Each structure stands twice: as structure tokens, then as C-alpha cells.
């Protein structure tokens, strides 16, 4: 896979939820042809990709690195930190949480490394995948990274590696944090006597509508909030109560806990069965 689409080959190491989602997105967007995609999975072909004609499978990550110009690492971080490849002339891109660029250089024996974060929403083209490259990238490498992550949704290059840790907390846990807020809203409705399936349907539709409206608008989230406050209706009463509560601080505490976990997860040994 290259910027011109001539097909130099992309290899994905790891075919779990995230690796599989990214592979599927790349194939659907025609960023890589099936015959140019290699997937390394220790248990062999897996998921929907297993029946995708033309995709190459291997259990040997070094074979993949030898055959592909670009390598995407999508392993669990504890397993990824132990991986070693001889890929000195390869572009090595990682979506492994907590694995920093120094570790990536050691993993791939390559100076051409990119640290990114994405999420399984790539499967439906809705992932946000920010990335960082120490020292910058050549124009062809940059084009490759952009094509890869634009196929998964939206993407930005960020100027500091620490921001990848921040986005790991903010955008990595799809739909975790948003789902928790929805869970709280559904529980409130049920506490008021609403049937669980009706409450769930209402809350799901609310979050679907809110997400689409914010995605389609240049208005920042704070602008939507202020519009509702200025309208001075029922929503304004709820928002004012939330603003007066410690909710904002508690959300920040949760995100900070996730960010701090990102700083340590890449240094932990794998589980015995990993």
C-alpha cells in the first residue's frame, strides 16, 4: 500500500477486535487490495476476514514484515511490547495503547515509526484516529498513514506524543464512557417507571441524534450547551443543576484515570496465556 495506490503491501499484526475492524475498513475503502494485505494471527484466520478471498494469513510476524512495505501493529500492549521484528526499512504504525515511540523503534528495528490510537468504530467508518510521528515523516509515508486512517473515519496528526495518551483516554473506549452516561440516563427513566426497553430505545435515539448533530456542525459542544441554557426551558434547568454539581470534575477524574493507565499498560508483562 502506498500513496498512489500501486500496492506495496500492508501487514497487520493482530486480528482482534481493533485489528479486524481496521482491516475490514481498508478493504471496503479499496485502500489495499485483498492480495496486498497480510494478516498475522497466532490462531490463524479469524472472523469475517477468514473468508475474504485473496487475503494472506501467517502466524509468523517476521514473514509478514519481510513481505510488506508497511506494518500496522494491533496487538494487546502487553504482548506487543515483547514483539521483535527485523523491519529496518519498513514503515511501522502502531495502534497499541501505551506503547511509546521508543518502544516501537525497538519492536520494529525501524526509525520510521508512527504512534496512533484508533477504536473498533473503524468497522463502520466512524473511528477517530490521531497519530504522532517523531521527527516527522516523508511525504509518501505521511500519505500512507493518512489513507490508512481516513479509511477508518477521521484523523489528525498531533504535535506531541503525550496527546496520544490523552486521546487514548478520550476516544479509545468506544462506546464505554458515552455508554455509561446513557446507562445512567436509562436507569433514571426506569426509576420513574418507564419500561426498560422503552427507556433504552429513547436513550439510544437521543445519543444517535446528538452524535450526528454535533458531527455535522462546526458548533463546539459548549455552544450546544449554551444554546439550551439560553432557551431557558426544561433542559436548561437540568444543565444548570449539572453545572453546579461536581459532574465536570468527576468526568475529568475518570479521563485522567484512563490516561494514567495508558502510561503503565505498555510496561506490564503479558498474562500467562497471552
TrEMBL record:
InterPro entries: 6-PGluconate_DH-like_C_sf (IPR008927), NAD(P)-bd_dom_sf (IPR036291), P5C_Rdtase_cat_N (IPR028939), P5CR_dimer (IPR029036), Pyrroline-COOH_reductase (IPR000304). GO terms for molecular function: pyrroline-5-carboxylate reductase activity. NADP(+) binds at residues 74-77. Keywords: NADP, Oxidoreductase. The keyword Oxidoreductase applies. Gene3D superfamilies: NAD(P)-binding Rossmann-like Domain (3.40.50.720), ProC C-terminal domain-like (1.10.3730.10). Signal peptide: none annotated. Residues 161-262 form the Pyrroline-5-carboxylate reductase dimerisation domain. GO terms for biological process: L-proline biosynthetic process. Residues 10-98 form the Pyrroline-5-carboxylate reductase catalytic N-terminal domain. Belongs to the pyrroline-5-carboxylate reductase family. PANTHER family: PYRROLINE-5-CARBOXYLATE REDUCTASE, PYRROLINE-5-CARBOXYLATE REDUCTASE 3. This is NAD(P)-binding domain-containing protein. The lineage of its organism: Bacteria, Pseudomonadati, Pseudomonadota, Alphaproteobacteria, Hyphomicrobiales.
Amino acid at each position: 500500500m502506498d500513496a498512489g495506490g500501486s500496492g506495496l503491501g500492508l501487514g497487520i499484526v493482530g486480528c482482534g477486535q481493533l485489528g479486524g475492524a481496521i482491516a475490514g475498513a481498508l478493504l471496503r475503502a479499496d485502500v489495499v487490495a485483498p492480495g496486498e494485505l497480510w494478516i498475522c494471527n497466532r490462531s490463524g484466520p479469524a472472523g469475517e476476514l477468514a473468508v475474504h478471498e485473496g487475503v494472506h494469513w501467517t502466524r509468523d510476524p517476521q514473514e509478514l514484515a519481510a513481505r510488506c512495505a508497511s506494518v500496522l501493529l494491533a496487538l494487546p500492549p502487553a504482548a506487543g511490547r515483547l514483539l521483535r521484528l527485523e523491519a529496518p526499512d519498513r514503515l511501522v504504525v502502531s495502534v497499541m495503547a501505551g506503547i511509546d515511540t521508543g518502544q516501537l523503534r525497538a519492536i520494529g528495528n525501524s526509525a520510521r515509526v508512527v504512534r496512533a490510537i484508533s477504536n473498533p468504530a473503524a468497522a463502520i467508518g466512524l473511528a477517530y484516529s490521531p497519530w504522532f510521528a517523531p521527527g516527522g515523516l516523508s511525504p509518501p509515508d505521511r500519505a500512507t498513514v493518512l489513507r490508512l486512517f481516513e479509511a477508518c473515519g477521521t484523523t489528525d496528526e498531533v504535535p506531541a506524543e503525550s496527546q496520544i495518551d490523552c486521546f487514548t483516554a478520550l476516544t479509545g473506549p468506544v462506546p464505554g464512557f458515552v455508554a455509561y452516561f446513557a446507562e445512567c440516563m436509562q436507569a433514571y427513566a426506569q426509576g420513574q417507571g418507564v419500561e426498560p426497553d422503552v427507556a433504552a430505545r429513547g436513550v439510544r435515539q437521543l445519543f444517535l441524534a446528538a452524535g450526528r448533530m454535533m458531527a455535522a456542525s462546526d458548533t463546539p459542544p459548549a455552544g450546544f450547551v449554551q444554546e439550551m441554557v439560553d432557551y431557558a426551558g426544561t433542559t436548561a434547568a437540568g444543565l444548570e443543576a449539572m453545572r453546579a454539581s461536581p459532574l465536570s470534575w468527576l468526568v475529568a477524574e475518570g479521563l485522567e484515570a484512563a490516561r494514567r493507565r495508558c502510561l503503565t499498560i505498555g510496561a506490564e508483562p503479558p498474562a500467562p496465556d497471552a
